């Protein structure tokens, strides 16, 4: 069907407030863009995301882009991104975030962006990793290579949301592995995930990456939520 006709029949709505989007608006309306709960972590010496890892794993930096509130706009965006196939939301958020992160690669000498991986079986069920478009776009905007094959997930586990907190806490290093150590030595990896809650998954991934000789790890998540 012709694109304009399709637009006439199914006008695009804001993922935040469900209002009709204007012609120059994409994904979310101007009003919702202004209401995005940005954390500004990248401007702070320390922040809530970094604090989750104090004494647990040594990270160069850790930022989250947005605060996640129940029933809030970020929850809606993440839900559409993660479960409804709206991968364009990841690209959209990364374009906004990249404006704040200009020069990040040079400042911290970052070598590669690494997504928190899904198990191949889960990847098949969902058909995409929800952080993929966010990673790809950040990679392009910040000129940091994207490596989605280095860190792999080993065993199949239940959906995170179905687990209770205690179960999530026991996630351990063995869930993840390094596919190939040979070209990874001495690199600074920027690990990326969608939402940070307890930090257990990121901890596990970071510890796995830090098994690589002389590696450094930093973390960016799309959203931060209090655990
Ligand atoms: Zn809106």
Automatic annotation (TrEMBL):
| Residue stretches making up the Phosphoribosyltransferase domain | 138-221
Q: Which Gene3D superfamilies match?
A: 3.40.50.2020
One family from Pfam that matches here is Pribosyltran
The record's comment on protein family reads: Belongs to the ComF/GntX family.
Q: Mind telling me what this protein is named?
A: ComF family protein
């Amino acid at each position: 069907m012709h694109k304009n006709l399709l637009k006439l029949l199914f006008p695009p709505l804001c993922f935040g407030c469900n209002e009709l989007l204007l012609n120059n608006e994409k994904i979310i309306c101007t009003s919702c863009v202004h209401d995005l709960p940005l954390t500004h972590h990248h401007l702070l010496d320390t922040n809530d995301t970094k604090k989750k890892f104090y004494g647990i794993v040594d990270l160069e930096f850790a930022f989250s882009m947005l605060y996640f509130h129940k029933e809030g706009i970020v929850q809606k965006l993440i839900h559409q991104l993660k479960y409804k196939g709206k991968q364009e939301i990841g690209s959209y958020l990364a374009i906004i975030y990249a404006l704040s992160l200009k020069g990040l690669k040079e400042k911290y000498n970052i070598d590669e962006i690494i997504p928190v991986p899904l198990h191949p079986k889960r990847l098949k069920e969902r058909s995409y990793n929800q952080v993929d478009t966010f990673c790809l776009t950040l990679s392009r905007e910040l000129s940091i290579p994207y490596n989605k094959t280095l860190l792999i997930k080993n065993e199949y586990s239940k959906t995170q949301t179905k687990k209770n907190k205690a179960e999530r806490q026991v996630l351990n290093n063995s869930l993840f592995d390094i596919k190939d150590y040979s070209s990874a030595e001495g690199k600074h990896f920027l690990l990326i995930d969608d939402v940070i809650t307890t930090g257990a998954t990121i901890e596990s991934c970071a510890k796995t990456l830090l098994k690589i000789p002389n590696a450094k790890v930093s973390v960016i998540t799309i959203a931060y939520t209090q655990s």
